[in-house]
């Protein structure tokens, strides 16, 4: 299972996304800093040392992924990262649609049926990276990743997390291909009893 974290950081006029993910097949922890969907900084760390010692259990790996994520986020906020100059927004951005918007949460499980289309022509986009997470403004949320199929569809399932700040909770779905990106954000509301 791949582990991932995602955070937002606002620096002056610029908004950045920091994404950290475990690539277990290659024993790498990869952190990306994005501005308007474009990678402006990347940091990869091998955990071959853990794999060689047989110490790749989820708790140890999660701690290392989370530490790298926090370190890069802190360095970004302190202004010590060498960022590529952000590109202006591009035409042809990606449209993200949640096809099961009324039924995506059931019995504590998140079931997302997602369509990814070109914004200009409305054509399905294949092999696009899709990321989803529940943020609540407290800790870095755990991200879940997938790729679209030939029809521009992706399905993601994961447990609904415990929320530190339920009033700030949002479902966030992002899609990224080359330099184009799109985001869908649903502010969550507590059920009335």
Helix content: 10-25%
Q: What is the CATH architecture descriptor of the largest domain?
A: Sandwich
Number of helices: 2
Q: Which of globular, elongated, flat, extended, rod-shaped describes the shape?
A: globular
Which structural class should the secondary elements be placed in? mainly beta
Question: What would your notes on this structure say?
Answer:
There is one protein chain. By secondary structure, this protein is mainly beta. It folds into two domains: 4-78, Beta-lactamase Inhibitory Protein, Chain:B, domain 1 (2-Layer Sandwich); 94-187, Sandwich (Immunoglobulin-like). It has helices at residues 48-52, 58-78; strands at residues 4-11, 14-23, 28-35, 38-46, 94-98, 105-106, 109-118, 129-135, 144-147, 153-159, 170-177, 180-187. A hairpin with a 2-residue loop joins strand 11 (170-177) and strand 12 (180-187). The model has no long low-confidence stretch (mean pLDDT 85).
Write a concise keyword list for the protein shown above:
single chain, 193 residues, mainly beta, Beta-lactamase Inhibitory Protein, Chain:B, domain 1, Immunoglobulin-like, 2 domains, four-stranded antiparallel beta sheet, globular
């Amino acid at each position: 299972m791949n582990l991932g974290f995602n955070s937002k950081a606002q620096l002056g006029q610029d908004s950045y996304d920091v994404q950290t993910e475990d690539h277990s097949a290659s024993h790498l922890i990869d952190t990306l800093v994005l501005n308007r969907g474009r990678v402006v900084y990347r940091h990869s760390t091998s955990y071959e040392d853990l794999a060689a010692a047989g110490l790749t259990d989820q708790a140890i790996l999660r701690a290392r992924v989370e530490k790298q994520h926090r370190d890069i986020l802190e360095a970004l906020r302190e202004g010590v990262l060498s960022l590529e100059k952000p590109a202006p927004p591009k035409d042809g951005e990606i449209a993200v649609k949640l096809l099961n918007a009324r039924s995506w949460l059931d019995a504590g499980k998140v079931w997302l049926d997602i369509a990814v289309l070109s914004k200009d022509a409305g054509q399905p986009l294949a092999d696009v990276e899709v990321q989803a997470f529940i943020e609540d403004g407290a800790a870095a949320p755990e991200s879940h990743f997938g790729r679209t199929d030939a029809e521009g569809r992706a399905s993601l399932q994961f447990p609904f997390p415990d929320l530190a700040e339920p009033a700030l909770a949002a479902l966030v779905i992002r899609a990224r291909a080359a330099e184009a990106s799109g985001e869908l954000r649903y502010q969550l509301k507590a059920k009335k009893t």
